[in-house]
Amino acid sequence: MKNSGYDHWGTIINKRATGYSRTPRGYQNAAYLDMSIPYAAGSLYSTVEDLFLWDQALYGEKLLSAKSRELMFKPNLNSYGYGFVITKTTLAPPTKLAVPVIQHNGGINGFSTVIIRMVDEKRLIVLLDNAEDGQYLDKIAQGLMSVLYDQPVDNPKRSIADTVLNTTLEKNVTSAIAQYRELKVGRTAGEYDFGETELNRLGYQLVQLKKVTDAIEIFKLNVEMYPQSSNVYDSLGEGYMIHGDKELSIANYKKSLELDPKNANATSKLALLSGEQKEVKVDQKILDSYAGEYQLAPTFTITVTSENGKLMAQATGQQKFELFPTTETDFYLKVTAAQVTFVKDSSGNVTEMILTQNGRKGTGKKIR
Description:
Layout: E1 5-6, E2 20-23, E3 26-29, E4 44-45, H1 48-57, H2 66-72, E5 85-90, E6 98-108, E7 111-118, E8 123-129, H3 137-148, E9 158-159, H4 160-170, H5 173-185, E10 192-193, H6 196-208, H7 212-225, H8 230-243, H9 246-259, H10 264-273, H11 284-290, E11 292-297, E12 300-307, E13 310-315, E14 320-325, E15 330-332, E16 338-344, E17 350-357, E18 360-366
Parallel strand pairs: 9-10
Antiparallel strand pairs: 1-4, 2-3, 5-6, 6-7, 7-8, 11-12, 11-18, 12-13, 13-14, 14-15, 15-16, 16-17, 17-18
Helix pairs in contact: 4-5, 4-6, 6-7, 7-8, 8-9, 9-10
């Protein structure tokens, strides 16, 4: 593996790829990250060819003993072994073939990766993308697996969100929605991805651009397209909440909860909107102690600052937003469905934060 190693900013690497970040207005160079920070979580570089050598070595005992390989590939909590997820991938209809796989996704500023090992047939898929969102890697991987197992394969589709976003920015949201409807029934409809996540992603891109009224129109269109989805009502409720339309926000969060009674985010937001969730006053010294940088993933950090009695948070590639306290350690955001809890050690030092968003929890260690 002559083209793999531990990255360092000063080392000249022949044919090194440059990483990019995608923003609502197009691609830009990814933010700089000193590779001494993520360490083993994202500081290695490699090539498809080298990872194939790594894959092949894992079948023998030259690199690892049989006992070590057994430990490495034994599924534990959440089907995780030592460095790999051991699970099954279900291929697309009509067959829905379930293929046993050993896999892992990864990412760092400007890069996204996927490695999938199909050990029964000694097959391997490696995808290395020099853009950090990696939104299509899973679909590409599943398509490649379908080819390998002689299953039907859908042709790759263009993002309808990207197309409609450009129209929104160049013209207006009314023109963009008209374009969406025309393309959906037109002869080129099969060329586009009209999935629920497309319009949802577009809506949040518009929120980031502070075009909240436009975002609401896109979320409304998604509700029209997917009326049985709890998530689309949740997003519309959030759009109305950001815009200050309390009653409409409540109505949509209630509809989301009706479709999915386990939607914890909708429950939390309804409590907030109804006044059951109260803000409290937190001492300035305590707010100051939360300031720092928290790493939740190799490509995702949240920088917290204490500014004039307010606690502000800025995630990678996003705007800065205020955190509102409900207790001394618990905070929530008004612009999005998220809660933050700060964790202290026995000495009272802040060690990490817990981010809860869309029913998922992520822990970020304080690195600065």
